[in-house]
């Protein structure tokens, strides 16, 4: 399926960005969380109230905080449902207007390389671009007014740490990627950083730096 593109007007681009998108179940919400709601009411239900607004954006960005994959073989484990969206939920993202997502986050490898690969394949098939994965960390939108480049990084891969799959927050790496886009004529570069100490309301000194 071709990428989702909306022709911008001659004088402006509307970029919309949201935070973490979770289409799975939290352990405290098993049986009545987002995934259950999608299974019961259909994928569109999740973004039904905000889709008309999001669909007006030329670039609509978010951080996909879960994989989109079939259940793991052992349904007796918590991992069978924990923070995992069904493959059908990719329809919710497309209906919600999202055309680029960051996959560089601490839950990207929760279901291993297979889960991440399945997610990437579903997004490719749905025309939704993504950033943050090693070798797939640049999404460029060549719009009428200017070109916009999106980059994604995270502080902690958390799972499968023996192999780097997602882009780390490394200032030298980020600077190099930004410079490369600028050399290629990309006028506006947007950098997504997935980070932060949980339950803390202020950025750390390292984040400020």
Architecture blueprint of SSEs:
Elements: E1 15-21, H1 34-41, H2 51-54, E2 59-64, E3 67-68, E4 84-85, H3 90-95, E5 100-102, H4 112-126, E6 129-131, E7 139-142, E8 147-154, H5 171-183, E9 188-194, H6 205-208
Parallel strand pairs: 1-2, 2-5, 3-4, 5-6, 8-9
Antiparallel strand pairs: 7-8
Overall geometry = globular
Strand order of the largest sheet: 1-2-5-6
Structural class: alpha/beta
Number of helices: 6
Assign a percent range to the helix content: 10-25%
Task: Tell me, rounded to a whole number, the average pLDDT.
Answer: 89
Low-pLDDT stretches: none
> How far is the N terminus from the C terminus?
40 Å
What does this structure look like?
- The chain has helices at 34-41, 51-54, 90-95, 112-126, 171-183, 205-208; strands spanning 15-21, 59-64, 67-68, 84-85, 100-102, 129-131, 139-142, 147-154, 188-194.
- 24% of the residues lie in helices and 20% in strands.
- By secondary structure, it is an alpha/beta fold.
- β7 and β8 form a beta hairpin.
- The protein has a four-stranded parallel β-sheet with strand order 1-2-5-6, covered by helices on one side. Strands 7-8-9 form a three-stranded mixed β-sheet, with helices on one face.
- The model has no long low-confidence stretch (mean pLDDT 89).
- The longest helix has 15 residues, at 112-126.
- The protein starts with 14 loop residues before the first strand and ends with a helix.
- It is globular, with a radius of gyration of 17 Å.
- It is built from six helices and nine strands; from the N terminus they run βααβββαβαβββαβα.
